[in-house]
Amino acid sequence: MEPIIEVIGLGKRYDIQHRRGEYISLRDVIANIFKHPFNFAKTKAKNVAGFSKKSDFWAIKNINFTVERGEVIGIIGANGAGKSTLLKILTGITPPTEGKAILRGHVSSLLEVGTGFHPELTGRENIFLNGAILGMKHSEMQKKFDSIVEFAGIGKFLDTPVKRYSSGMYVRLAFSVAAHIEPDILLVDEVLAVGDAEFQKKCLGKMDDVTKNHGRTILFVSHNIAAVQSLCARTILIEKGQVAMVGETRDVIERYLSNNLVRSGVVEYPQNLESNAVIRRVCILNKDGEQRSELSVAEPFKIAVDFDCNQKIADVAVSLLIYSRDQDLLLYSSDSDSTEKFSEYSPGSYHALITLPEFLLNVGKYSFEILLHTPNIHLYANVKNFGFEIKNTDNPRSIVFQGNHPGRLSSILSYKIETNKK
Predict the structure, then answer these.
(1) Report field, pTM of the whole predicted structure over 0.90
(2) What span, in angstroms and rounded, lies between the C-alpha atoms of 56 and 18?
(3) 12 and 85 Cβ atoms separated by less than 8 Å
(4) Which of 44, 65, 352, 399 is the most buried (most CB within 10 A)?
(5) Which residues lie below 8 Å from residue 26, measured CB to CB, with a gap of 6+?
(6) Residues 314, 392: one domain?
(7) Domain end among 201, 228, 260
(8) Domain limits at 406?
(9) How would you classify the pairing of strands 72-76 and 98-103?
(10) Residue pLDDT, tens place only, 390-417
């Protein structure tokens, strides 16, 4: 049986024009017309318009893969890797520069919040409008209308113009319409990030249902690694516009995360004078104060953070988040947890030392993030994707924290903030 999606040598090139930004007077233009009457229109006109040269940018290049009917394929990669460009070509929004994509079936897509919605029309009117755009007959929409509204949870606002909807309401309604079209192929971009946790879970359940019970095919682009792992058997990793790996989801995710982790004992960051505060240096120290990225399960370790304040900032917390290899949040703690007070920093340099006890984490690979922020209000600076590994020892003592349940473990962390006078 032929694959339902076949992508062969797909590429998309954009022309980038660079403006010189220099001022050209009318006197110069007239003089150049007389000096170069034949090639003026070809060369100098670009300068008059402000264009000096063009360069090529390949958003994607030489993409090849196939998808079988009924598969759920994840597509992951860093921002700007070319994931959304790929989906826009598959949906026909933009044509490829080279190669071809063969889709054998009816395609429905959810690439942007409220795609195809008219802001002046009500939710009721947009359901029928969007359904017609996606290829559904009016009689079919009438049969599925109630289930679309119930799934979206917008019953009270059904006759309200969608321009008054929140972004969350937009995406709930857009996804609900797309999911009830029952296409052969459903293309979903990162729009689910707009919805709340409950609705994201509901959407994932719906996508799981349409693949297992109805044999639909889904291409799912997301930065939610846990969602990709739970939903997709196979995943495609795109790096710099090219397919870097295609395989089992767990193997692809491990490569993606390992490529994006900082795997060194210390990292220094350039100063940014435009920010109120900036994190300059982060390092992991073992019990002897040595810089390490590999630690023993039976030894305590410390995370040292140096940051500068360029202006006075108040109500600030230094927080630590530890993630599993699959990017599940395992630990969140802040220096304000024990004191129940936020800190105030005057301009200057500061040093935060986070002490973590032995047997906190199980054997495995982890990453952490440091936040300098006013919780839920303002982020001043952060450092993420700093990787480290906990290795086994012969110590027979059991491991306290297995790393399966998120928690707030502030009682085991001790913070020491020291001011280095300049």
Answers:
(1) no
(2) 11
(3) yes
(4) 352
(5) none
(6) yes
(7) 260
(8) 266-420
(9) unpaired
(10) 887 655 443 444 333 333 444 444 555 5
